[in-house]
Amino acid sequence: MTVQAPLPLLDRWLREAEQSGVPEPRSVAFVTVGDGGQPSARTVLLKRVEDEALVFTSALWTRKARELDGNDHVALLFWWPTVGRQVHVAGRALLAERELAVELFAERELSRQVQTLVSRQGEPLEDLEPLRARHAHLMDVLETPPECPPDWGAIRVIPDAVEFWTQATDHLHDRLLYERADTGWRLTRLSP
């Protein structure tokens, strides 16, 4: 039996987490796989929930982007302890169209846009002070927001499986697993 797709439920849970005052409700662990099958995790912010995908942004020179080039399988984990919920997503990531990257870059706070210009995230450096000085200088002199750099992109994660977990005081937590099937989605309740 096929059921409704899981992303509308995830979107509802996100809105409920926001309304409950959860700090950074769109913060999510984003796990990629590097050389030799080594997993790599970092925390990122979800930008959008689309009908069939979750959207993130990234500089395209980062370890995350390089690992996605070699292996598009990813895992995501949202955790909202104050409301007793988590969502685990497994799927594939792909680079979205340039127009979406430009649109999402323009939505970033100005200081975050400038940070993208002055810092090569993840690269070694001796001292933060030159970056801070350049950032402060650009914040003072820029008359218009910067354009989206060519090496900045939007990433869509297309889920293959989404598990919703709701905490229970008796530790018999409710687990709902949505798995992509040929004709839509299949839903299974899992034992805690």
Walk me through the topology.
Layout lengths: L6 H13 L7 E7 L5 E7 L2 E2 L4 E6 L3 H8 L2 E8 L4 E11 L2 H10 L2 H9 L10 H13 L10 E15 L7 E8 L2 E7 L2
Antiparallel strand pairs: 1-2, 1-5, 3-4, 4-7, 5-6, 6-7, 7-8, 8-9
Q: In words, what does this structure look like?
A:
There is one protein chain. By secondary structure, the protein is an alpha+beta fold. The chain has a single domain (7-106, 149-190), classed as Electron Transport, Fmn-binding Protein, Chain A (Pnp Oxidase, Chain A, Roll), CATH 2.30.110.10. The chain is 28% helix and 37% strand. It is built from five helices and nine strands. The protein has helices spanning 7-19, 63-70, 98-107, 110-118, 129-141, and strands spanning 27-33, 39-45, 48-49, 54-59, 73-80, 85-95, 152-166, 174-181, 184-190. Strands 1, 2, 3, 4, 5, 6, 7, 8 and 9 form a nine-stranded antiparallel beta sheet that branches. Strand 5 and strand 6 (85-95) form a beta hairpin. Helix 4 (110-118) packs across helix 5 (129-141). The protein is globular, with a radius of gyration of 19 Å. The model has no long low-confidence stretch (mean pLDDT 94).
Short account of what is shown:
The chain is an alpha+beta fold. Helices cover 28% and strands 37% of the residues.
Could you give the distance between the termini?
Answer: 23 Å
Number of domains: 1
Question: What's the pLDDT, averaged over the residues?
Answer: 94
List segments where confidence is low: pLDDT < 50 over at least 5 consecutive residues.
none
Q: Give the C-alpha Rg.
A: 19 Å
CATH superfamily: Electron Transport, Fmn-binding Protein, Chain A
